[in-house]
Amino acid sequence: MIKTYKRIAAGLLALVVLLTTSSCKSKLSPKQDGVPSGDAAMGRYIEEEYELPENIGYVQMFKQRDDGVIELLCNSNPDTALGPWSIFTSADGGKTWTKKDTPWISELDNAVIQGADYAKDGSLHIAYLEYPAEVIEMVKKGEQPQEEPQSKQFFMVVDAAGKASASEKQLPKDESMASISNIKVADNGDYVFYNYFSLNQVDPNTMKIKNTFTPNSVRQLENYLVFGNTLVQPDGDSVVLFDLETGKNLATIPISADNADADSLGDAERLITVSDDNKALYLCDNTGIYRRLLDGNVFEKVVDGELTSLNMPSLTRRNMIVQKSGDILVLSQGDEGYVLLNYSYSKDVPTVPTTELKVYSLQNNKTIRQAMGLYQRANPDVHVSYTVGLTGSDAVTASDALRSLSTELLAGKGPDFLVLDGMPIESYIQKGVLLDLGNLVNEPIAKGEYLPNVAKTFQLDDGKLPAIPARFGVPVMQGDDSAFASIHNLDTLTDYLVNAKIDANKQRVLASTYPETLIRQFYPGCAPAWFAQDGTIRADALSDFIKQMKKISDTEVQNEYSNEKQFEIRYDAMDWKYNAIQLNIGTLQSHNDIAAPEAAIRDKGQGKLAPLPGQTDNVYVPQTVLGINANSAQQQKAIQFLNLVLSEQIQDNNFFDGFPVNSASFEKGAKNPYPPNDDGMVYTSSFKDENGNIQEMMELQVIWPSDAYMKDMLNTIRNLNTPCTVDAVLQQILVDETKDYFTGAKSLESTVTAVTEKMKLYLAE
C-alpha cells in the first residue's frame, strides 16, 4: 500500500508557499583576519538577535555582496511567493536595513520568484514564473484553483548599473518534474538549479543541461553552495565538491569532526556556506556551527548549539553568511516569521559559562530544547547542559541509564533538573530525591493558569507536589457507532476485533497487530489496574492484559515486517474511513491530531473518537514531567527553567509531543491557524496488486475541525482523571518476557510469573 499526504493543489507549491515551517570541544579564538582558531580558556561566539525590516514575508535571497553589503530579497506576504517584492540592504552586518531603490522590481509584482543570485560581474539573475491574471487574483484572495494552472518561465538579468532585461526561457526538469526553487551563478556564468532530487548545471544561453549532480543519500539538496566554479553538495554524512568546469568530483569530505558529533550532524536542515576568502567551509545545524579549512582535515565546532538558539526546534535554519568581519549571520524562520541571529566572537567571556545547569531526560525532548534556547539567550552566563540517557547510538538500555541515574540521585548528586518521562517517579518521590514544587505552582493551578486535572497528577495527600507534567497525551479510539455500542473495556474491545468479519486480503482489525506495538499502545490504559494501592502487583489483571494482547495479535499472521507499522491516529483515519481497518487507535499529541479523525467521521457519516477503552477509564499520559533534584546546588536556576517550560512562550509551540498543560496555550491550540478559505490537506493511499496495478484509491480531505467538534473534544480531555506514567523499564520487561508466549513457546501462567518476578526485582531496587 502506498500512501501520500499533501496539500491540495500541491503543484502550486511555487505559487502558494505555506511556510510552516554537546559540549564545546573546539575552544577557538579569532585570527587577526577574523577567522577563529587555536585553544584558549577564554573566548566564545556570543549570540545577538538583530531586527529585520518590518513586514518581511517570504525571503527569496539572503546574500553578501563582494563589497560586504548584505542584501535581502523578500515580499510582504508570508503565505505566498507572490510580489510585490523588495530588496533591503545592510552595510553594518545586519544591524540596520535600508530599502534599495529598484524601479525594475515592480515588473515582478505578480511573479513567483524561484531563485536569485549575483554573478561575478555584479549582475543579479532572477528566475521567476508568471501565471494568468485570474489565477493571481484567486491566490491573492486566499483561494486556490481547482486544477494546476499553466505558467511561463522567465529570467531577468539586472546589470551592475541597474538596467533590467527579461526573457522567456524553458528550463529542464528532473524526474520529480518539480519546478526549480533555487538558483546559483558560477563564475563561468553557468546556472546551478535545485530540482528537488538533483542539482542541474545549465548553460545560461541554451538552457541545456551540462551536468547533473545526484546525491547517494535520499535527502533533498536545497542547501547547496556554489563559489567560484566549485559546487558543494551535501550528501548524507559528507559534502562533495565538484568542479563546474569539468563536472568531476574534487573531494568528498566527511562532515563529522569526531565520533561524538557524527550522529547529531545528520540534520536535513544543515546550512553550508564559505568564508569570505573562499578558504573555509562552514556548516550549521541544531548542534552548532562548524568550520573546516579547505586544505584542513576536520570540521571544528566554533559555536555550540546548546549555548544558543540554534538548539530551538521551533526555528528552521534558512541561510547563513560568514561576514568579512568574521561574524556569522544565521537567518532562521519560526511560526512568527523570520529571525536574524548574529554570532560575534568575544575574547572576554569564558569559552564555556562557569555556571552549569544540568538537565537530564531519557529521550530527546523538543520542548526542553526550545526552553534551553530561550534560557541561554536570556542567561548567557549559564550553560544549560542537556544529557539524553538513550541516544540510540550505543547499547545502553533504559535499565542501564536509570540505574546510573538513581545511584547519583541517591548519593545527593546527579542532574539539577529532571524530565521524568519513563522513570520510576513514585520511587523517586518515596525516596525524597525530588524538590517540592507546591509553593511554585499551587497558586497558578488555583488561578486556573494550568489545567488542574493534569497539573495535580503527582500531588500528595499533604499538598506537596514533587513533579508536574508540562504536556500530556490522550490514548483514543475511532470506530463506527456500532463499535462503541459494543466496546466498554479491554475485554469487549478484544471480542469485537476477534469477531470482526473482514476480507484478509485488504482489511485488518487494527493498523498493527504486532505484539510489541500493541503492548506499548495499550500500556497506559491498562497499567494502573496492575498495581494495588499499596504498590503490590495484581497478577490477575496483568495476566488478563497479556491474554487479550495475544488474542488481538492472533487475528493476523505475524511476519518479519509486522513490527514496521506503528499506530498513527491521524494517518490511519483514512484507512478507517474506507473500512481498511475496523478500529483506528493511537494517541492524540496535539489539537492538530483531531482533524483527520473528524474528517473521516464527516465523510463516513457516522462514528466517534473517544478515549481508548482499557482496564481503566478516562486515561491521560503525563509527558515532559518536570522535577528538580532536592539536592541541587542550582535550585533557583532550576526553578527559573521550570517556570519557563510551563510558560506560554514555550507551551504555545506545537512539537507533537503532547497537549500543553498551560491553560492559555491549551485554548490557543484549539483555534484554527489556517486562512478562512484554506482547503486543508489531502491524504491519499492506493492498493496495488503483485503486478503494480492500482486496485483501489483512497482519499481523505482534512480541514480544521469545526468549533463545535473541537469544543466537545476539549471538554472530554479536560475531564480525564486517570493518569498513567509510562515506566520505560516496566514496559520493556513486559515486551521482553512475553515474546515466547506470543509465539506459543511458553504458557500464560509461566509468562505472568516471569513478568511479575522481574517487575518485583526492579521495583525493589
UniProtKB/TrEMBL annotation:
Signal sequence bounds: 1-26
Keywords: Signal
Entry keyword Transferase: no
InterPro entries: Quino_amine_DH_bsu, SBP
Domain of life: Bacteria
Pfam families, alphabetized: SBP_bac_1
Protein name as annotated: Carbohydrate ABC transporter substrate-binding protein, CUT1 family
